[in-house]
């Protein structure tokens, strides 16, 4: 068990490189199960716990997986017959494991996947996956903690999603690539990760049109093959560092990212008085001494992303006045606020809305990361706090951030990662001889 220890008060300056996108990689890893011919070479794959968790599941399902974490290159091959049952121990750690459902069903006519269960950000039902797969002609049952789907042949259909779910859009898009005839997904999610998956599927020989709009049309094909693909940058990692720069009144170039993917965040940062300069390969973020309050509502893309809500809440708490935060995607995504209370934050929560009372003078405290983005937000609060902040449960942060504390250190933060069992011993992979910024 490790924790991050942050001594606040440092201004972040410099340049930070952004990794490939975790949330684009996961469905693409799952989609590799659809290819009966050829293998895959994926570039710019982030070395993250979630990617490794998905690799473990693919291996269990009989795919060949070689991940060069130094080179960020992932080789996948699913040409051998695949298994089509994913037991609980392979899916319980990560929600996105459910994404193997569509590909396995499309390829083998049967899929049995353990239900990933609820998590720290809300109940996360899967009714839209079930509704969509049923519309494609599958018989879908939920029993003994598993979702079981079978179909002799999937048939193209018109599917309307009651909510533009990212996961359901991805799952159904993958299943429909091998269905007979045409599938249309209406009210589809429009996230950049959806476009990325469609591009990848098309490189595999699929015929997917309209990704990035609310209607996706998929013409089924007889087989899919391997390909080479380079993943897009991670917009949530980029957004987190943009907010970190603003929180510390810093001057940071967030490099190797696509500014348009974070247009909603940039609009909000600018409203708060932060300067964001778009550059060829990313953005430069210049903080301000006087942050203005702002109201934010999370929404499906291109609205403000829920995955940046905990992080932006820290900036809102620093602003001069009252801000509101309206969380419309996940009902339990305010867990970080209760932790921030220990650090002096003042707020009231009423249903999905938090009223944040700034400006906060954060003071260091011992806090716990309830989930991935909550963990990132607590670290960011630590950067702005007086004194020392200790963030526990950092394995949550490892799910989605590669070398988080090393990157923050390189920008000037005073941050360490230590083993809780021995608070004086730094953990392996986190060397003791890094420059001390004191
Ligand atoms: C691996 C990955 O890409 N994860 C992202 C993905 O999660 P994920 O794909 O799980 O999120 P969804 O877009 O599906 O969920 C959005 C909303 O739809 C609801 N819903 C979803 C499916 C369903 O069958 N029924 C239903 O009601 C959920 O409860 C939630 O309220 O999109 C979320 C919303 O941008 C992000 O926070 C996650 O980081
Ligand atoms: C919520 C996230 O991931 P997941 O959907 O895998 O829980 C996230 O990346 O912030």
From TrEMBL:
Chain residues that bind phosphoenolpyruvate: 22-23
Gene Ontology MF terms: UDP-N-acetylglucosamine 1-carboxyvinyltransferase activity
Enolpyruvate transferase domain span: 7-408
Keyword tags: Cell cycle, Cell division, Cell shape, Cell wall biogenesis/degradation, Cytoplasm, Peptidoglycan synthesis, Pyruvate, Transferase
Top EC category: transferase
Top-level taxon: Bacteria
Active site residues of this protein: 119
Protein name, as recorded: UDP-N-acetylglucosamine 1-carboxyvinyltransferase
Organism the protein comes from: Limosilactobacillus pontis
């Amino acid at each position: 068990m490790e924790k991050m220890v942050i001594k606040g008060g440092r201004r972040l300056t410099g340049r930070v490189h952004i990794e490939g996108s975790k949330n684009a990689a996961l469905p693409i890893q799952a989609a590799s199960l659809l290819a009966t011919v050829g293998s895959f070479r994926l570039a710019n794959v982030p070395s993250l716990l979630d990617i490794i968790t998905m690799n473990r599941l693919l291996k269990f399902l009989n795919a060949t997986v070689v991940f060069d974490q130094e080179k960020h290159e992932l080789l996948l091959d699913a040409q051998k017959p695949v298994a089509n049952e994913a037991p609980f121990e392979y899916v319980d750690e990560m929600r996105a494991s459910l994404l193997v459902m569509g590909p396995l069903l499309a390829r083998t006519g049967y899929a049995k996947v353990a239900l990933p269960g609820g998590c720290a950000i809300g109940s996360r039902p899967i009714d839209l996956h079930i509704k969509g797969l049923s519309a494609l002609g599958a018989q879908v049952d939920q029993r003994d903690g598993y979702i079981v789907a079978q179909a002799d042949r999937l048939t193209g259909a018109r599917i309307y999603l009651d909510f533009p779910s990212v996961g359901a859009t991805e799952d159904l898009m993958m299943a429909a690539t091998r269905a007979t005839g045409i599938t249309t997904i209406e009210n589809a999610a429009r996230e950049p990760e959806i476009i990325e998956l469609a591009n990848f599927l098309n490189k595999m020989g699929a015929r997917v049109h309209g990704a990035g709009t609310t209607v996706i049309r998929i013409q089924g094909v007889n087989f899919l093959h391997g390909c080479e693909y380079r993943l897009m940058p991670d917009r949530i990692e980029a957004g987190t560092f943009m907010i970190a720069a603003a929180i510390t009144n810093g001057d940071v170039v967030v490099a190797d990212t696509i500014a348009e993917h974070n247009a909603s965040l940039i609009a909000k940062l600018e409203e708060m008085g932060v300067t964001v300069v778009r550059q060829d390969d990313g953005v430069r973020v210049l903080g301000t001494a006087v942050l203005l309050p702002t109201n934010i509502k999370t929404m499906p893309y291109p609205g403000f992303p829920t995955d940046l809500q905990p992080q932006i809440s820290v900036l809102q708490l620093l602003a001069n006045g009252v801000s509101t935060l309206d969380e419309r995607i996940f009902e339990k995504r305010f867990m970080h606020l209760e932790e921030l209370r220990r650090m002096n934050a003042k707020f009231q929560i009423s249903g999905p809305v938090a009223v944040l009372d700034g400006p906060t003078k954060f003071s260091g405290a011992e806090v716990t990361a309830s989930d991935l983005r909550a963990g990132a937000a607590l670290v960011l609060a630590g950067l702005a706090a007086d004194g020392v902040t200790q963030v526990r449960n950092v394995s949550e942060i490892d799910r989605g951030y590669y070398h988080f504390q090393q990157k923050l250190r390189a920008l000037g933060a005073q941050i360490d990662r230590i083993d809780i069992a021995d608070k004086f011993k730094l953990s392996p992979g986190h060397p003791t001889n890094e420059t001390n910024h004191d």
